[in-house]
């Protein structure tokens, strides 16, 4: 505001508003403040004096232009507003107290500025009264008393009463519409049940109406009897009248008929005459005749067609009817004939007898005529026959009469005769009955029906009269039967109670297993299954403890890894320092300091380190010592590393950019260590997923930049080392399980030699002969390949070595190819992404070429190190011998060639004979590598999604401030490449950080070397999931549905939703909420679940609702999901049940995954502990070496050097002794000319070599490893110290380690030869 008013532009524009452009013709508006801006302010002075503002209220030009008294400027503007308000030209500026908000810091800063400038703050509250006093006018009306908040609220409510009532009406209408919509939704949800309910309602209504009618009929029985009597009487009278009328008509029938006939004849005659007159015209007659003919034809055809169609439809029934009719007619005719025959039986018999008599006589006459012709012969034959027959009869009669059974035989014969007659009569009767059987059957059926109806009517009437007694009797009988059945069943149950319990348990177990199987593999999960297994969604105490244990293990693993890395770095640094010490006879102060830093970090040391960081304003000093700016920087660093973790593209670009630089190796190890720390070494689900996505992007960027597939096969990108460190903890178990047997087989095989170079085999054979004979061989030892191969013994040994090497290679290949399922997922995922990237970049590449790209990481970086150095993977307990290592190297050479996908060439002629096997193994290994890459994506494996970083809490990382600042430096150096646009998030963060903090002194640098815990936060977490609304609906629907199933379980979800809510349900719901509160009070320290699926089932969000509201919300969310087409009411909202079942399955997978993580981290801790022990042993060895060396150096320091009297050095030491400042480790004085001649001194700025005689250089040391070099100028007999500097031995050694030839001192004033300067220091101070 002050800067905006200083140039007077705003004040000049204010004058122009009131006076017009004529008063202010030109406003000077230059961007830079200069003296011409005072013209704008002068215009304002002229205006306020013209309007009559007193001089006491007008500020000075310097008050505004130089900001000497800015409150007076504001006071003048307030007074001007009051004056203009009195003139009616403007509104006055009101009291701003309570309308503006300022922070305490702003108020304190303003008060401090006023106090320092000596300016008093004007009283703005009395500006109106002061102005009225100066201009001699009445003061303004006092402002109305400021009403209180309650008064203001009551006034506003009273003023807006109508609006409030209208709003309440609208709200009530909205609530009613919402309730009606909910009711309609419930009705739509129960649509498939409505017909059933309607049918039941209609049935109930019909039964009620029928019962009312029955009751009415029961009440109207007397009236009905009277009505029936009246109806009968009226019927009798009506029938009598009808009979009289009928008899009268019958008596006058002839007269009536004649009358009718005459009338009809008369009418017909009249109509005939009229028609005859009409049709008398010939033309009409012809047309009528033809029309009648056609009409008759049409009518006849239609009649015939109808008759035909009718006959066709009833043809079969007519045929049956005709057949039945013909049968009836035939049976009737036959019956008539039989009746007639029965009536004339005697006549027929007599006729038949007469006919038979006539025929007999005729036959007799014919026989007589014939016999007459043969009378003599016949007479004689008859006589003989009669005689014979008579004799026989006589004999038979004699025999029969002679027996007693004659009467019996006669009786039997009569019986046979009667039986034959009876059978004949029976047959005739049967035939008659068969003939009349249809009529008899019909009559019998009619008779039986009549009897049954009579019996039924009698029983019905009896039962109707005895209905109450029958009902009571039936109820008693049913009760007795039911009690008997129940007692029998209970006795049976009691006798078989054990078996019943066992059967019930087996059935429940089977049902539970079936429900669990349906839950795990089924697609349509029932409500009962969800209700039985919904407890699996809750985190138990065991789950909570396991989560804590896994989290602690993860932190321990990360800390152990960092400790091991720090120990390894210290070991490497000690190696370098000790080597430099031995070379340069270096002081051991540096080693002593390193030894102290490796010791335990006590509380005092930690406090001292914190105080150092806090003194320099470091943002990592701790929460208690941070100021606002340091805290803001800490937040920015947290956001920066979170952004680098979740946006892996920046790290991949940084790796690409660093590899293009010449000195990228200098920052490589630091960058790799920071990246591994950033992702927590992949020991957590989220961090491992993000690390794998980083590898995925790096692999695809490398493939995109590759010009040929060989660039990928032979390339060594920067991310490979990060991948190796990430996979190393998981590598040990896999390598031991896969290759331990074959590697130990190679090591433990005696006399195994896999050397394949014939020249070396030939030389070894010559050496063996010399050793056996003791006589030097005359044969040449160093012979070329083909010469050695032509030697028979060498050739045989060479072939045998190749055969054995091929056999062992086959064993290794077999062990490797059988280990696909044992390989860690991270390794397989990188193989998968490598294959995808290669196929995308080179679609025509062969399978072998793609497999070679995969083998670059899988074999060469993952498996091959274990074959070359098995002791580092705990495959063997001790270091292997040289012969075994050479044998493993030969196997490794074979496997490397196989995984490269090419055969041996002319550059390796000794391996060419095994090319056939190599080609065969290439096919096998290529298929195995492709199978390794056949794995699901990371999203499926880790149940991750696009917004995992916004839904899962990131883990803290352990990193030192120096590593943070080093990463900040690298990002700042390559910012234009990493973030080219101004809106880029990375550029925004780095710009706000405002540069890298300075390195500082040695003490500060040491304090920054200790790792701190850095919490990662997301400043840019406003990214919105496109499906967030849908996911929210799913979460809310699942939560509400589970709450309903806990209170109102049913067979169907729709049934549960349609059940009415009663007070009992509200009580159950309150009990569930109370139980949840008790559970929370028991586990107050429990961490909430970090997965989105688990958080969907916590009831915290709906605990404040009643169960009725929960149910209404459930119906609303289900209908919203149905509108989106995600679920359907036709299947009873099965989709929501399947979603809940999927969450239960995910919970089980999470438990299994947690167990696997626990085992893997315990294995990693064991491995890291062994590595730490090895590093500590090595560091202890270095410590012992340091102690021994320190003892030796201390003895050397105790010697007094002899100084030649009356020399420059003699007088120099005497002066130091007189001054009482002799350095502890000596002081030496040289002329610059002397050092220049020796080559130690190269140059001194502003001095030529001719002036070096007048310049002295003093080298002294009062602290271990620190040397003070001073330059004195003795010109004109006056000694002046030109420059002085302390030089540390470690700086000199580091410069020598970097191969620097010269070393500059005194800010570049003097330049020394580095090696000769070290030699001079070693000579004077250490030798």
Topology:
Blueprint: H1 2-6, H2 9-19, H3 38-50, H4 61-65, H5 70-86, H6 104-117, H7 127-134, H8 149-159, H9 161-189, H10 194-219, H11 221-251, H12 253-278, H13 282-313, H14 315-343, H15 345-373, H16 375-401, H17 406-435, H18 437-465, H19 467-495, H20 497-521, H21 527-533, H22 541-584, H23 589-597, H24 603-615, H25 628-646, H26 648-659, H27 665-678, H28 685-705, H29 709-714, H30 719-748, H31 758-773, H32 785-790, H33 792-817, H34 825-841, H35 847-868, H36 882-900, H37 915-932, H38 938-941, H39 948-951, E1 957-959, H40 961-973, H41 975-978, H42 985-993, H43 1002-1007, E2 1012-1014, H44 1028-1047, H45 1053-1058, H46 1063-1082, H47 1092-1095, H48 1107-1123, H49 1134-1197, H50 1208-1219, E3 1227-1231, H51 1232-1238, E4 1241-1244, E5 1255-1263, E6 1266-1273, E7 1280-1288, H52 1289-1297, E8 1302-1305, E9 1310-1313, H53 1314-1325
Antiparallel strand pairs: 1-2, 3-5, 4-9, 5-6, 6-7, 8-9
Helix pairs in contact: 2-3, 20-21, 22-49, 25-26, 25-42, 26-28, 27-30, 28-34, 30-33, 30-35, 30-36, 30-49, 31-33, 33-36, 33-37, 34-35, 35-36, 35-37, 36-37, 44-48, 44-49
